[in-house]
Amino acid sequence: MKIIRYQDAEYAEFVQQLDRQAIPSTELYETVAGIVDAVKQRGNAAVFEFTERFDKLALTDETLFVTEEELAEAEALVEDSVKEAIAASKKNVHAFAKKSMRQDWKCTNTEGAEVGERFVAYDRVGVYVPGGKAPLVSTALMTASIGQAVGVKDILAATPAGADGKVNPSLLYALKESGATQIIKVGGAQAVAAMALGTETVKPVEKIFGPGNSFVVEAKRQLVGAVSIDLLPGPSEVLIIADDSANPAFVAADLLAQAEHGGDSVVGFATTSVELLAKVEVEVERQIKSLSRAEYIRQVLDNGTFALVVPNLDEAIRICNVFAPEHLSLIVEDEDRWLDQVKTAGAIYVGNFAAVAVGDFLAGPSHTLPTGGSGKSFSGIRADQFQRRTSIVRMDQASVQKAEKYVTEFARVEGLDAHGASVSIRANA
């Protein structure tokens, strides 16, 4: 863990580097662009080629989709305790989604026209669920299940299978329970391209949801226009802001839990207390010894973890708003005062007992959140992202007559005579 104190010469430069922009490297952009173009031009053949190259899995038109038999086999293999946990998470996710859905409304404007908004569910969406070192069962719930709650009828899921062509049974069960109507055994940028553009056998979707590695995120970015996207959720990250009121064992546990994601995960800790930092370091070394993924965790602690000793909490909050972390754990006295000053965190966990892992698996809000600094522009997945929004205007002649004066003036200034005439003809009918 890299430790920097505010008195250190490198402190200002390091903090400045935390002001990130989610902009891809030229190499990443060109690699993904090549994959997207290949899928656009060659469809399934390109998808199968990249899947064999990257995942060592040979797919065909017949084996691309998960079958009903595979889903039944997976359900039989999943332990009842796992099914119970999935059901508990789904219940909370659905309840949160129902509360946060946009509702139709209407009112009458100054001229007497009836105006309003209508919100309807998308017809077909895609969700991406990463595979890799750990089957992200909870991501199925934090993406597809929200669409299910909103009323999306057609949900295509994409997740990579192993070299044996199998997808983790618990993940398959979670996807089915979350409303996935089709599942393809494909990951990476080629999966995103297939969902967005369609192939001979994959019907394109209208919007894509879900996290992934840098290739997945870049594919989503490049395909905006062909398809809508939720946000830019890449490798996981956390920032913990704590003062002397924090329990060092809890802080260490959250640092280790975040580092457990491995890869390019970013783990940050900002504290006003040198004493707390020292205790957290001891706790990290004590707790890591009992963890099964200690090797991955150690790599992230060595390469992707930083601790800042800051002069005060004002500075810590300023850093948070610059860094725009995916997760913020706020463990300070007078927590509401400091909570009100946080602007750019994807999700905020307040107090010693608000474990980020509860949000990851169970609490209700989606754990699919903006990363890499994109939290300055995006928020996490919400129910209303699964809804199309359209405005409605209804008028009678009286309201047209009241509007005519203003509309014809706009039409005159902008040189759009036909616009004005289309109103006057109604007002004077």
Automatic annotation (TrEMBL):
PROSITE patterns: HISOL_DEHYDROGENASE
Transmembrane segments: none
Enzyme class label: oxidoreductase
GO molecular function, one term: histidinol dehydrogenase activity
PANTHER family: HISTIDINE BIOSYNTHESIS TRIFUNCTIONAL PROTEIN (PTHR21256:SF2), HISTIDINOL DEHYDROGENASE HDH (PTHR21256)
Family designation: Belongs to the histidinol dehydrogenase family.
Protein name: Histidinol dehydrogenase
Species assigned in the record: Rubritalea spongiae
Species lineage: Bacteria, Pseudomonadati, Verrucomicrobiota, Verrucomicrobiia, Verrucomicrobiales
